[in-house]
Design brief:
GO terms for molecular function: phosphoadenylyl-sulfate reductase (thioredoxin) activity. This is Adenosine 5'-phosphosulfate reductase. The protein is of the alpha/beta class. The protein is built from eight helices and six strands. The structure holds iron/sulfur cluster (SF4). The site of iron/sulfur cluster has 13 residues, from helix 7.
Length: about 240
């Protein structure tokens, strides 16, 4: 009798084909249905990543799998409000918050590369403080969920609800890719979901403090990130 194939036995090619098929099949599914598929398919090898801008995807995922792992990257440069949101999520929601940190503290990085590397070489700063720790933190997972939305910026307009993350060779799930800001606001209101207080203080997107500013009238949600620099993404997406 042929044994049931476990996720561990699936090759990257098989995972990639699975992700691309799911992306087509689930394009019109609800966010909760997409997360339920991810939970049913990957079990403990599935996690949610959160920047703690809000806890919408963490909340949805906890409905699909109570106690789900929620991975947060503590770059050492976060606003106090972001750390406070992380702590509140861990305290009140049925999720397992896992905090990842870079290999170097900010002081150690400053000693080796000089102060304010984020102003001089944000790509290197993001690579060391975001991309590398996430890559290492995701090694035990086969699939991860993000809060990416197509309406956030032109660079995110083609985000699939399920796709293949070639950089990390994992299945990448974006359950609210089709949502608008109005959908997010309605979900937050309906379920009393925790949000970062900075969203009520003029910020459209919340990242590291040195690289995030409030929005000006008419700007898209991510315009306040790396303002004045051509950089639009940290390298994770
Ligand atoms: Fe460094 Fe800015 Fe990237 Fe944060 S967002 S890791 S401070 S460059």
């Amino acid at each position: 009798m042929r044994a049931v194939q476990t996720q561990e036995q699936r090759t990257n090619d098989e995972l990639k084909a699975l992700a691309e098929q799911a992306g087509r099949d689930l394009e019109d599914a609800s966010a909760l249905e997409i997360l339920q598929w991810a939970v049913d398919t990957f079990g403990e090898r599935f996690c949610v990543t959160s920047s703690m801008e809000d806890a919408v995807v963490a909340h949805l995922a906890s409905r699909a799998r109570p106690g789900v792992d929620v991975v947060f990257l503590d770059t050492g440069y976060h606003f106090p409000e972001t750390i406070g949101t992380r702590d509140a999520v861990a305290a009140v929601m049925d999720v397992n918050v896992i905090t990842l940190t870079p290999r170097q503290t900010v002081a150690e990085q400053d000693a080796e590369f000089g102060a304010k590397l984020h102003d001089r070489n944000p790509d290197l700063c993001c690579a060391m403080r975001k991309v590398k720790p996430l890559e290492e933190g995701l090694t035990s997972y086969a699939a991860w969920a993000t809060g990416l939305r197509r309406d956030e910026s032109p660079t995110r307009a083609n985000t699939p609800v399920v796709g293949w993350d070639e950089k990390r060779r994992k299945v990448k799930v974006s359950p609210i890719a089709r949502w608008t800001q109005d959908d997010v606001d309605a979900y937050v209101l309906e379920h009393g979901v925790l949000t970062n207080p900075l969203l009520m203080d003029g910020y459209g997107s919340v990242g590291c403090a040195p690289c995030t500013r409030r929005l000006l009238e008419g700007e898209d949600a991510r315009a306040g990130r790396w303002s004045g620099n051509a950089k639009t993404e940290c390298g994770i997406h």
